[in-house]
Amino acid sequence: MREAGRKRRTEKLDYMQAMLGELRTMAQAERYDMLAYLIEMAYLEASDIARGDPSTPGATPGSGR
Question: What is the DSSP string of the chain?
Fold first, then answer.
């Protein structure tokens, strides 16, 4: 059951990253530089959490992808 929870968590983070990537592209196309930057930061945060970066709040060390 624990493994299923990790898989679901990873799937959610992958989905969020995909959506953030699309939003970042839209913001860049419209030259909303600050918005694009903030979305990029959220994209990177999702990546750090997915990798289990221990310096990221909410990350589970060793969970990885």
Answer: -HHHHHHHHHHHHHHHHHHHHHHHHHHHHTT-HHHHHHHHHHHHHHHHHHHT-TTSTT--TT---
pLDDT tens-digit map of 11-54: 999 999 999 999 999 999 999 999 999 999 999 999 999 888 76
* Predicted local confidence at residue 63, as pLDDT: 46
Output the six-digit token pair for 26. 């839209």
Domain hosting residue 22, numbered range: 2-51
Q: Determine, yes or no, domain membership for 58.
A: no
Rounded Cα distance, 13 and 37, in Å = 19
